[in-house]
Amino acid sequence: MSTTSGVTTLRKGDSTPQVVQLQQRLLNAGYQIAVDGEFGPATEQAVKRLQQAHGLVVDGIVGPKTQAALAGKVMGWMLSQRDLQQAADDLDVDLAAIQAVNTIESNGAGFLADGRPVILFERHIMHRRLKHHGLDANALQVQYPALVHTQPGGYKSATVEHYRLKMATDIHPESALESASWGLFQIMGFHWHRLGYETVQAFVAAMETDEASQLNAFVRFIKADSKLHQALKDHDWPAFARIYNGPKYKKNHYDTRLADAWQKYNGDAG
Description:
Number of helices: 14
Number of strands: 5
CATH superfamily of one domain: PGBD-like superfamily/PGBD
Largest sheet: 3 strands, antiparallel
CATH architecture of one domain: Orthogonal Bundle
Strand order of the largest sheet: 3-4-5
CATH class of one domain: Mainly Alpha
Structural class: mainly alpha
Distance between the termini: 26 Å
CATH topology of one domain: Muramoyl-pentapeptide Carboxypeptidase, domain 1
Radius of gyration: 20 Å
Oligomer: single chain
């Protein structure tokens, strides 16, 4: 069991009072399962049937979107199983690989409760982008150290990150938008040109549209790096994690978590 954006995430193996509540809600929704507080195979299958019925990603994990489905509040911007299959087809990889990456590398939700995309503003990237655009980044760091700095930091809550971005756009709009990571897969804005968007504003507009558009940015990101793309095709999770997450990927066990998730989804497919 884990908590994301204030919503408890439940999955197979959990045994908590929240599982009892989930099972009762599933039973009330017409899924015939025992209300025993054990998130076992029967509960997981009921969750998957619910997700499939509502066009969600079918992973058997009860996060904010599945909770919304139980409450009758599924929104059109949410990622669907069809979107994942389309991404797999576009990248010529198996669906289980995309499902694994979506489970481990995505934030679980690409939008905040107020409808704005999930972002993280990076002040050290702002410093670099200001220099890229010919501005005096060092002088601006002295004036705005929380927004422009040679070192990362200054992070706030998910909603406050948008306030930080707004303040940064008052310094230089393009640099600010390029200095935030966006959406489900937290793609950095400065990649906009490499990923085939006409402007950084066009990239941001796509990130504000829906999670399918955010997934499309991820697909473009993979296609833009042949080594990363090949690692995904080969299920070479250490290589994929090293390129995608950086040299410290082992600290968070990204490679083993990706491998385990792929094995799970590959087994489900079989």
